[in-house]
Amino acid sequence: MKVIPGESSSGGLAAPEEPSPSNFPATGTKELQNASASVRFVSYNIHSGIGADRRHDVSRIARALDECDAAVVALQEVDVGRRRTDFAHQANHIGQELGMHVHFHPALEIEDEDYGDAILTKMPSRLMKAGLLPGLKHRPRLEPRGAIWVEIEIGGQAIQVINTHLGLNRRERMAQVEELLGERWLGSPLCRDPVVLLGDFNALPRSTVFARLAGALTDARRTAPEGRSPATFPSRFPLLRLDHVFTRGAVTVRSLAVPRTPLTRAASDHLPLVVELEFDPGTKTSTHVPDRRPA
């Protein structure tokens, strides 16, 4: 795993660099100090910063995210040090432009080139777990898939955030979902409510994979005031809802939207999924505890 802001080479958490206050949303700083305030999350498959026009421009992704004005960002298909995208560390590039802490996990490592998932946040955070999800033994050439779990602190309350990108094969996806629901991830004693699971699940709402997740967690779309979630793929003419947000615990969905602007339609092959969540203050738990993480 690469050394990135907020992470040490040993996998433990180093003291993250503070983002410049000028990069925070004008209305966001005070709201983030209040656990009952709503917090905006974004899940975005950035397609390695290669847009619908086949042009590589990771700054365009950052601008699209800036328009979303989120405090927590989950990215999939992130390139780090890859020749095809000019050897950029895309997660760090976006994090620097948005003034956010960065946690990155490579699902695929080829020599010095990495490709995977990231969580960016404006709140105090620590990496809890990052790892690969199971594939199919008889299909070893399937693209490796992974997940990353970060604990963030909002007004003294610990929120567990897991970002993932599931495979293209149905059996593979089901195995990956069972792993995520098991004792190493969502079933871990350390994965206490409230929990937000989001990402590109490559699963339609009527699929068995989606039903398994929706049976164990709450699909944010079901409780959103809008009552529906627009499609996220492909970005130019979206037909499929592949990107989802699930919650567990005392979480209220205040809004859910898929921005369709000239910028978001061009920046990637997916559209960003934006959800506003409110967490019941309940019992506040600080994240500044001994560094215990699941195996």
Automatic annotation (TrEMBL):
GO biological process: GPI anchor biosynthetic process
Chain ranges of the Endonuclease/exonuclease/phosphatase domain: 42-270
InterPro entries reported for this sequence: Endo/exonu/phosph_ase_sf (IPR036691), Endo/exonuclease/phosphatase (IPR005135), GPI-anchor_lipid_remodeler (IPR051916)
Chain intervals for the UniProt region annotation (Disordered): 1-29
Any Pfam family hit: Exo_endo_phos
A cellular-component GO term for this protein: membrane
Gene Ontology molecular-function annotations: endonuclease activity; exonuclease activity
Biased composition (Polar residues): 20-29
Taxonomic superkingdom: Bacteria
Entry protein name: Metal-dependent hydrolase, endonuclease/exonuclease/phosphatase family
Naturally occurring in which organism (per UniProt): Consotaella salsifontis
